[in-house]
Each structure stands twice: as C-alpha cells, then as structure tokens.
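Why do we care about 3D structure at all? Because function follows from shape, and shape follows, mostly, from sequence. That is the central idea of this module. The next example makes it concrete: a single protein chain, its amino acid sequence, and then its structure expressed as tokens.
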Amino acid sequence: MQNIKRRGLMYVMSSPSGAGKTTITRALLKNNNDLTLSVSATTRGRRAGEVNKQDYYFVSPDEFRDMVDNGEMLEHAKVFENYYGTPRGPVEQALSEGRDVIFDIDWQGTQQLSEIAREDLVTVFILPPARSALEKRLRNRSKDTMESESDIRGRMEKAADEMSHYTEYDYVIINEDVDEAIRKAQLILDAERIKRRRMVGLSEFVRGLKGGL
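And the structure:
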C-alpha cells in the first residue's frame, strides 16, 4: 500500500448567505487534519475580530486588480459591491503536497474552478430547509453585523438567484439539522477521497498483486 498515493482534491461548499456553509466548513476543518482552508482575498473592510491572512487576505481594489492581471487568482467575482477571489499559490502548494483544500465560495467562483480543474473538483450546494428559516438566520446575524433592513432584503433577493444554480453542483445538502448536514458533508468527502481516479500508483499496485498471472 505504500506505493499508492492520492491526489489532493478541491472541495467546494456554496450556499446563499445564512444557509450554513461556513458552520459546516469549520466543522470539517476541525475533524480533518489533512484538510486545508482556501483563504480568499477580498476588497471589503475587515470586520471586528477578523484576522488578516486567516479569515481573508484583505487587499485594496488596486491590489486585487493586480493579482487578477498577474494570473495570481484561480477564480474571482464581485459580491455585494466587493471583490472576492482565491489566490492560486497556497492552493497549488497544498494540492501538490497531497492535502485536500476546502473552498467557501459562490457559484460564480465554482464555475471558474470547473473550467480549469474539473477532475480535481468536488462541489456541494447547501440549501436552507425553508425560505423563512433563511430569513430568520439572516435577521439573527444582522444583530452582530449591524446590517439594515435594506441589506437583509438585498441578501434575500440575491439568495433566490444563488439557489437557482444548485443544478450545477455534484451534491446538494438541505441544512435542516446542522449536525446531520455536517455528517453528510463528511460522507461526501470520505467517498470522494477513495475514488479510483484519485489513487496514484494503483495500476502498478494491482500488477504487483497479480504477479505472473
């Protein structure tokens, strides 16, 4: 078995804001030592408690444009008047070391990753159990983020558009119970890790088992 290695995979989690992808992502990272978070770059301002290079790479609009122009982004998109993107270097380094990378990105970024790395990509879309549940989560979160009623309405409108892209994903999880949603996300990750196409050196291993047969 020592001759069989596994290519790292890119595990994408997407959802409308408030549907729970960040909570599920954090749980997977806690439970999987060989899973690395892809830290996005953004032009939005840093919120209270956020740490640069840990929560996001906080950059200016000019710095972000330079990264895009220099080919330093795997994907990028504009979301709520701010730009977000995935720096290429840390992801490629992790994959080359055989580690899996988890992404917390939207459907626009997922489409871009699909164009350049479909074989290494596993995509999951998280849906809320009901529209009312999503709105409740957004309102509860707005108490901490100080978002206005207009902001909440805008997020609900955007959520409707985002959810229309669920058909572009490999898997869909309806997040009615967060523990169950985390369990399903882990099952998906475990199954994808043992897919035959990800096992490097398998054919040589089997030839050795067959011997002279």
